[in-house]
Design a protein that fits this description.
By secondary structure, the protein is mainly beta. It folds into two domains: about 150 residues, Tachylectin-2, Chain A; about 80 residues, Immunoglobulins (Immunoglobulin-like). The protein is built from no helices and 20 strands. The strands form five sheets. The protein has a five-stranded mixed sheet with strand order 13-20-19-16-17, with no helix packed on it. Strands 1-2-3-4 form a four-stranded antiparallel sheet, with no helix packed on it.
């Protein structure tokens, strides 16, 4: 197998089974070399655009096996293997492919001596990370390993601090790399509410609620949950 870190790897975003990112187009994820470093960082480029975006977390100078996958709603996933850390890093974009979410890190399978290939598939929502693994154990043969990764929800609330002396409604917003997430369930103070098309749900803090910090949680199938803390004074 060749060295994928030395060449760009593409996915055609408007593939029949993959919704295109907002605005359509084709995208390329690839290593950008410097004079002395084979992969100084990874770039994500919309074909035809004047410039590419730097993928966060990719400037360790040890990235190889860059892969890209499209997800429902227009999001893209970019992943790569860091040879110095023996870890796989994954980052997700918003639907417009104009910003990146937090970098998620996966440990390589046990006894891994090298990854000889890395691919991704995310058309159903969760991301399947498929690696061709070479192990350190004697007489072992290369094997494929598949790990599934869920997109991360984010939750905010306003106001974040309320008084126990009166009832106050807190407006919660659930997002996925900044995009609203409808149909998510927000749980807070023993109550639940579903987010609307703007990712918003409201729950009232009753008068006389115990003072202190109270945690709200947002969940949705095929997502990693998130929390937000509201302080009652």
């Amino acid at each position: 197998m060749g060295h994928p870190g030395r060449r760009p790897i593409t996915r055609d975003a408007p593939h029949p089974t993959w919704p295109a990112p907002a605005g359509g187009g084709e995208y390329l994820a690839y290593c950008v070399p410097s004079k002395t470093i084979e992969c100084a960082h990874i770039a994500l480029w919309k074909v035809g655009a004047g410039k590419a975006s730097v993928v966060p977390g990719s400037a360790s100078q040890h990235a190889v096996h860059v892969a890209i996958a499209a997800a429902p709603g227009g999001h893209l996933w970019v992943q790569w293997y860091d040879t110095s850390q023996n870890k796989i890093h994954v980052v997700r974009t918003n639907a417009a492919v104009s910003r990146f979410g937090p970098v998620q890190t996966l440990a390589a399978p046990p006894s891994t001596s090298e990854l000889d290939g890395l691919q991704a598939e995310g058309s159903q929502g969760p991301l399947d990370v498929v690696a061709l693994v070479l192990q350190t154990s004697a007489q072992s043969t290369p094997s494929y390993r598949d790990t599934q990764l869920l997109p991360k929800l984010s939750l905010t609330g306003s106001p974040s601090s309320v008084s126990h002396k009166k009832a106050t409604t807190v407006t919660f917003t659930a997002t996925d790399v900044g995009d609203p997430v409808p149909g998510a369930t927000v749980s807070f103070l023993g109550k639940t509410a579903k987010t609307n098309s703007k990712g918003v749900a409201q729950i009232t803090v009753p008068k006389g609620t115990a003072t202190g910090k109270h945690t709200a949680t947002v969940t949705k199938p095929d997502y990693t949950s998130a929390t937000f803390t509201v302080k009652v004074t």
